[in-house]
Design a protein that fits this description.
Strand content: 25-35%
CATH class: Mainly Beta
Number of helices: 3
Number of strands: 9
Shape: globular
Radius of gyration: 22 Å
Helix content: 10-25%
Distance between the termini: 67 Å
Structural class: alpha+beta
Number of domains: 1
Length: about 140
Amino acid sequence: MMALLIASLCMISAQVKPTSESLNKKTWSISDLEGKWYLQITPVNDSSNNRIPEIQFDIKQNRFSGTTGCNQMSGSFEVTDSTLHIDDKMITTRMFCPGYDETTFLHKLLKIDGYHFKNGRLILTSKNDIISQWSRKKLARI
């Protein structure tokens, strides 16, 4: 009986303890994409108007909607655990927004081929280059 107790204690102490990295690492899934996201505005991608682009993903329908920071947009998308493709048959309204480069924003959105999450942010990528970062909360302009 004593030998069994000692063997059990040895096995417990020999187990690998989790590192702080593994404790902080969250496993994400496609369902985490669901919901509304706000573009993180920086001086580089500031639209010079007062609206912040937002996008809302509906995973069950493979549909998205939102704003470009100027016009409304909606369409469909395809997603896997690591890839995301916005369908180029996107619908947008056509309001004129002086000083805002909406065309570049839309072209970047259509180039997206992947995504991941980091520190609670949605990172959209194209060929592993970061295209944009999105947050669940609308942040104040920088």
